[in-house]
Amino acid sequence: MAERIRTTVEGAIATITVARPEKLNAFDIDMLKELSAACDEIEANAAVRAAILTGEGKAFSAGGDIRAWAGMEANEFGHAWVRFGHRVFERLATLRMPLIAAVNGHALGGGLELAAAADIRIAEEQVKIGLPEAGLGMVPGWSGTQRLVKRFGAQAVRRMLLGGEVLTAAEAETLGIIDKVVEAGTAVTAAKAYAARIAARGPAATEVSKLMIAVANGEDNGAAVEALGSILVAKTGDLREGVSAFTQKRPAEFKGEW
Fold this sequence. Notes:
By secondary structure, this protein is α/β, with parallel strands linked by helices.
C-alpha cells in the first residue's frame, strides 16, 4: 500500500502531507493511525520547531471516507471511528511545536476539523469550507462542535452545521477561521515562509506560549497545566536531589532551588 501520510523534514520545519488525492484525501482507519505515527515522529525530532499540514492534489481533505465507516455497527462507529479519530486529531492539535495548515483545496467536514487542529490556517483563494454532516443525518465527531466553537465562535459553526452554509476562503477569513488567503497554488510556499518565522523565534518560549494560549482558550487545560508544571519542576535542583537521593537510597535534602 502506498504511504498516504507522508512526513518530510527540511531543517527546522516538518511537513505532513495527506496523500490520497484519488479520494480527495478522505481518511480511513489506517490513515488515522498513520497520522498519529507522523505526530510521534516529528515530535521526537528535537530539531523540528514548526510543522506544516497540507493535502496532495486538488483537495486539502474531504474528511472521513464514508465507505470506511458506513457499514459499521453503532457501537463500533462510536468507538473505533469517532472516538479514535477524535484522539488522533487531539494529538495533532497538541503537538509541542506550532502547526500551520496549508489549505490547498476544499476542507469539508472532517477536513475542516483537521485544519482546525492547526494553530494557523493559510488557505488558497479557491478553497471552500463547511460542515455538511447534518445533511447526511450525522453530527461532527472529530471536534467540529468543540474545538471549532472554542477557536472560531459558536455562530460561525452554527451557520455551517445548522444552516449548511459553505464558506469561501475570503468569507472564512472575515470570521477568523482562516488567518490568511493566498493565490491558488501558493499555500504551501506561504506556509513555509510563516513556519520559518516561527522557527527563528525562541523554541522554549514558543512551546510554552502555545500551552499557555491553550489554557486561556479552555483547550486541554489539565494536560497543558501539568506539562507546564512538569517542565518547570524538571529544571529545579529539588528534582535532581530527589532523583539522586532515590538512587542512593538516602533521605533527600531539598533546598528549594529553582
